[in-house]
Amino acid sequence: MVKNDAEDLAKKMREVSVAEFFEKNRHLLGYENLTKSLLTIIKELVDNSLDAANEAEITPTIKISIKQIKDNRFKIISEDNGPGMVEDKISYAFGKLLYGSKFHRLRQSRGTQGIGVSGAIMYSQLTTGKATKIISSTGKNKIHEIEMMIDVEKNEPKIISHNEKDNEKGWHGIKIIMEAEGRYTEGKQSILEYVRQTAVANPYAKIIFDNPNSKIVFEKVTNEVPVQPKEIKPHPYGIEIGIFRRMINKSNSRNIISLLTTDFSRVGRNSAIEICRISKIDHKRKPNTLTHDEIDRLHEGMKKVKLISPATDVLSPLGENLIKEGLKKEVKGEFFVSVTRPTAVYRGNPFLVEVGIAYGGDLKQEGSAQLIRLANKVPILYHQGDCATLESIIETDWRRYGFSQSSGSMPQGPLLFLIHFASVWVPYTSEGKQAIANYPDIVKEMKLGLQEAGRKLAIYVRQKNKLKEKMIRKQIFERYIPEIVDSINDLTGIDKKKLKEDLEFITKKNTKLEEEKENGK
Amino acid sequence: MVKNDAEDLAKKMREVSVAEFFEKNRHLLGYENLTKSLLTIIKELVDNSLDAANEAEITPTIKISIKQIKDNRFKIISEDNGPGMVEDKISYAFGKLLYGSKFHRLRQSRGTQGIGVSGAIMYSQLTTGKATKIISSTGKNKIHEIEMMIDVEKNEPKIISHNEKDNEKGWHGIKIIMEAEGRYTEGKQSILEYVRQTAVANPYAKIIFDNPNSKIVFEKVTNEVPVQPKEIKPHPYGIEIGIFRRMINKSNSRNIISLLTTDFSRVGRNSAIEICRISKIDHKRKPNTLTHDEIDRLHEGMKKVKLISPATDVLSPLGENLIKEGLKKEVKGEFFVSVTRPTAVYRGNPFLVEVGIAYGGDLKQEGSAQLIRLANKVPILYHQGDCATLESIIETDWRRYGFSQSSGSMPQGPLLFLIHFASVWVPYTSEGKQAIANYPDIVKEMKLGLQEAGRKLAIYVRQKNKLKEKMIRKQIFERYIPEIVDSINDLTGIDKKKLKEDLEFITKKNTKLEEEKENGK
Fold first, then answer.
1. Per the CB < 8 Å rule, is A6 touching B83?
2. Tell me, what's the pLDDT at B518?
3. What angle is formed at CA B370 by the lines to CA B360 and CA A25, rounded to 5 degrees?
4. Mind listing the pLDDT tens digit for each residue in B192-222?
5. What are the residue boundaries of the structural domains of chain B, listed by start?
6. A10–B89: do the CB atoms touch at under 8 Å?
7. How far apart are the two ends of chain B, measured CA to CA in Å?
8. Residue A358: its H or E element
9. How many Cβ pairs closer than 8 A exist between chain A and B?
10. Inter-chain CB proximity A425 and B240 less than 8 Å
11. Looking at the complex, does the CB of residue A431 fall below 8 Å from at least one CB of chain B?
12. Under CATH, what is the fold of the domain B320-456?
């Protein structure tokens, strides 16, 4: 080993391309083992198709085909009926990491990073050395067939071939054909589970899933496409000083009022004037003439003025009905409860939490509760141990709701949780998008949702337990009736049959009266 | 909400800079809450200083100062005695994400990504709007004082000021001064815990830790700087086809033999000829003339030839003694065991696992086992739920070693685990470097280490339990001696005192004999 001094080290320094970084760290994107890698590919393709259809307000029909070619090698085809992609953007959208239309905005969508499908294509070429074929049309013009790879060292697309075909039928959408190493399994954390849960969370989508074992069609169960979430501006309470400075420096606004009212949400003219007054800055000043110190004061002033919380209509929840429906498709429970919380804010980003609980029925009496997680209507299956959802359940005291729970653990009993997190920006713990980071505001809100659902569940469980106790008391009494009859007959000589019937009648009547009293009749 | 067609979407597409990406996703770097953010900053600074000193073979002395300025705002100063940095590299090394000397090599080090300190500076300016000051000299020339920020949209450094000072004393090293939002706590998952564990894992380093509550000096306890790990070439078994193609295409080697023997580790001339023979390719061919198909064949051929495993001297383990010492500093246990596994391979990268277990003593009899995790001698404190170390413990059957354990959980009992993972490339689950991805080869190796340590522990626990049973039997017998004496005295009239002494002597002798037998005397 040669000793390195500062000069030696300097010679070795160079830039790392984003693609190189994620190629070497492919587990960050969800490609650390064969089973998960295949799931990640499918997830990226489906999420992308659903987003594209949603943006264009098209009822999505998505075809996914996975066929085994040889050991650990699969051919994957995805096809959607979305808006397609403009010719000159195709190679960049799919051949460059950190490139896309969703990052620089605040709007609820499945993808945001501009990594997803490009990452899948990179994994495909890493494990097979093969190019990916993209077929696309916007419906108005020709069908483009592009074979491409990614130049990893440059993080740029490399087009191998490009053909155009007539598009007489006006087809629009995107079809992607690739090969990759993987393993196909069904059961827990499988593609099948992902597709099934996706179908439940997106009941207006038709998904045709042609897998190595069978072909399954998930028909759409409603024609009602949910209202599209709106894009919003950041809320002043959550904006960090570093980003605020950049907004000010880049701003072309006439004055501070104009900046505050147009580049932020929930700031009206009066609030803007009040912010300037508190910050001791003339509201007629042009933003890009402010000094560092003035910007800092304005930033602090913004947080002192009372403003309305972020808009609540920018998010698209599943809704309490769909959550119960989803749970019912998972298990035959005996009781279901669901809660949609109001919109809350972390780092200035609106989000909302929905919680569902299934109880009893087919669920196992013993053992830990189970958990289904969704983020912006996408099922997430891995890294549960690292997810804000799990932390929220663990930090909730389930003994208050009648369940046993040791500290730092899931509650025990026949419980299945579902937690949906919807936000204009989901803070995933890694680029593989499998767990939600535990920002304090998020965990707090999840716990409130769980407590609300927990209280409702507890009422049911308590009533059920009371009824059970009563039944046991009744059964014990009934068991002693013959003995009592014998004793009374010995003492008084009253007819045994009549006595038995009378006692049984009284027992039944009492039980009924008690039940009616409880039900408030 | 306006409907977006393909043209609308195309207009919104653009590149995202790496810095923008991590600024918006700062939780990926470990900056999701105040407490953890402050820890992440300190960790990046210390890891960087230790790496620099190691590269230059300098015994490190590191000063860290954390002082509270106001609510949630801290001034952080770090200073090392490393080789320093060449003037024109300072701003890039600390002002550009994905830039550094460690990414494009395979060598055990704490940092690799070229994100760490740049990320801390980005978080500093995001939360305070302030510049960071870097003071550096290589010892041979002047002291440079650079005030800088990061242009996030370009991912480029922005120098605010640059001063030079005379360096009469020949000082070398790097001093960094920044402000950031944070919260200082002591206890679990704290900076203090991180620094303490770092001192244990790096006993040749002196660390002066000046925190808001006290000033603690961790003196070095040895002058022996461990042998520096070597840089290695990739092993043919782990190289993916995508990367192999790139190596071939870029190669200037005369022929395939030259490529295989110089750009890979563990391939000698004979193995190289054998690889070519199996792949049916003339070994005199120039690599960059090979067709796609030929490269694929060569890639498959490489995996069929028997090659030696990656070199074992490229990794720097803690060693079994240091692991026990480390555990002893954590707890007063009654039994300690440690295991250093031989080198293994995942994705062609050599790695090794070390396992330590402390048992009994002050450790709590009830409740789950605890876990200390280290990667390349760096303590990792967060995201345990998502770490290959935890998964390995959970998947090991501890009931075989005498502990209770419910499925999917840590074993119960007075146990403290330590797992150290050393590799030329640590696959962290996120850029915040807090958990190791569960590649199957890694989990397997960790389980083997745990089993080996578990077996040794089980022998001790079993002996202890046997001894305990024997003591109980002895005590019971002793308790009955008076009654036996009375009975025998009644029957035979033998002197009670003498009889009692005799019986007690026999009991003692038998116990002693049994013990000697067990100890093999």
1. yes
2. 58
3. 145
4. 999 999 999 999 999 999 999 999 999 998 8
5. 18-218, 236-304, 320-456, 461-518
6. yes
7. 87
8. strand A349-359
9. 234
10. no
11. yes
12. Ribosomal Protein S5; domain 2 (3.30.230)
Any idea what DSSP says for residue B27?
G
**pLDDT score for B73:** 97
SS3 B302: helix
- Which residue in the set A9, A21, A229 is minimally distant from B98, CB to CB? A21
Q: Which of residues 209-268 of A touch B (CB under 8 A)?
A: 227-230, 240-246
Is B177 exposed, middle or buried (CB count within 10 Å of its CB: 0-12, 13-18, 19+)?
middle
**Residue B344: count of CB within 10 angstroms of its CB:** 20
Interface touch A230/B1, C-beta < 8 Å: yes
Q: Do domains B18-218 and B236-304 have the same CATH topology?
A: no
Interface test with B, best of A4, A16, A143, A296 (most B CBs within 10 A): A16
DSSP B86-105: -HHHHHHHHHSSSEESSTTS
From the list A6, A16, A428, the residue facing B99 with the nearest CB is A16
CA atoms within 13 A of residue A183's CA, in its CB half-sphere: 10
A1 touches chain B (CB under 8 A): yes
**Type of residue found at B431:** E
The radius of gyration computed from the CA coordinates of chain A, to the nearest angstrom, equals 30
Look at residue A312 and tell me whether its pLDDT is greater than 90.
Answer: no
Question: Helix, strand or coil for residue A80?
Answer: strand
pLDDT of residue B520: 54
Give, as one character, the DSSP assignment of residue A27.
G
For residues B272 and B171, what is the distance between their CA atoms, to the nearest angstrom? 49
| Of A17, A228, A431, Cβ closest to residue B1 | A228
- Assign B192 to helix, strand or coil: helix
In terms of CA atoms, which chain A residue is nearest residue B141?
A6
- What radius of gyration, in Å, describes the C-alpha atoms of chain B? 30
d(CA A510, CA A506): 6
SS3 of residue A2 by DSSP? coil
Q: What does the alpha-carbon distance between residue B474 and residue B510 come to, in Å, rounded to a whole number?
A: 10
Contact B429 A429 (CB under 8 A): yes
The stretches of A202-311 forming alpha helices (DSSP H) are: 241-250, 256-263, 269-279, 292-304
* Nearest Cα residue to A85 out of A94, A77, A76: A94
Q: Tell me if the domain spanning B18-218 has CATH number 3.30.9.10.
A: no
A17 touches chain B (CB under 8 A): yes
Q: What does the pLDDT read at residue A301?
A: 95
> Residues of B with CB below 8 A from A17's CB?
98
For residue B448, the number of C-alpha atoms closer than 13 Å in the C-beta half-sphere is 12
Question: What is the rounded CA–CA span in Å between residue A193 and residue A247?
Answer: 43
Q: B371 at the A interface (CB within 8 A)? A: no
Q: How far apart are CA A424 and CA A412, in angstroms?
A: 34
Both tokens of residue B347? Answer: 């994705």
A454/A447 Cα distance (integer angstroms): 10
Separation of first and last alpha carbons in chain A: 87
Q: How much is the ipTM here?
A: 0.87
Residue with token string 């005369």: B254
> Structure tokens of A439?
């920002």
Q: Quick check: B181 pLDDT over 50?
A: yes
Q: Are B83 and B95 in contact (CB under 8 A)?
A: no
Q: Which long-range contacts (CB under 8 A, 24 or more apart) does A67-70 make?
A: A67/A210, A67/A212, A68/A184, A68/A212, A69/A179
A379: β partners: A374
Chain A residue numbers touching B4 (CB-CB < 8 A): 55-56, 83
Average pLDDT, chain A: 91
CATH of domain A236-304: 1.10.8.50
Residue that is written with structure tokens 């769980």 in the block: A450
Collapse the DSSP code of B135 into the 3-class scheme (helix H, G, I; strand E, B; otherwise coil) and give the result.
strand
